[in-house]
Design goal:
This protein has 145 residues and is mostly helical. Helix content is 54%, strand content 3%. The protein is built from seven helices and two strands; from the N terminus they run αβααααααβ. A two-stranded parallel sheet has the order 1-2. Helix 2 (39-52) packs across helix 6. The longest helix has 24 residues, at 2-25. The radius of gyration is 19 Å and the shape is globular. The chain starts with a helix and ends in a 6-residue tail after the last strand.
């Protein structure tokens, strides 16, 4: 009886561990070059960027005294090979500087859509999701594959 109880308790725990490692082991299946945001989303993001981000990162996304650029070579090199989900999580956790984590997932996705548009990544028909797990399946690549 004790073995049955122990097995009944361990099976769900083991299942969670296996599923957790499977989800995190998935490699990116899409590229940022596949049109992962929409033009409408980038337009919303531009307005939000002006309101929430430009005071530190600059109106042209060139960075400021204490904030890195969000466009150009330095920005691209810093994220090359990572995922859109990695960038999304960084923004979600640490931005805006005066009130980290205060923007919704949708607002963060919209701002990133504007950043991607400003870096000349192509728009697509669908909006970029606001879930970091989904965004981890999209690779940030400087060079088009």
């Amino acid at each position: 009886m004790n073995i049955r109880c122990a097995a009944a308790a361990l099976i769900p725990f083991a299942t969670i561990i296996v599923l957790h490692s499977t989800v995190h082991a998935q490699s990116p299946t899409k590229s940022i070059w596949d049109g992962v945001y929409s033009e409408a989303q980038a337009t919303r993001g531009k307005a939000l960027y002006s309101q929430e981000c430009a005071s530190c990162h600059g109106s042209e996304l060139t960075g400021g005294e204490m904030a890195p650029p969000l466009a150009g070579g330095e920005f691209m090199a810093g994220w090359d090979g990572l995922t859109v989900g990695d960038l999304f999580e960084r923004v979600r956790i640490s931005m805006p500087q005066n009130s980290p984590g205060s923007l919704s997932g949708q607002q963060n996705a919209d701002v990133l859509a504007f950043v991607f548009s400003s870096n000349k990544f192509p728009a697509g028909a669908e909006e970029m999701p606001k879930e970091a797990g989904i965004l981890k399946t999209i690779k940030f690549e400087v060079k088009k594959p």
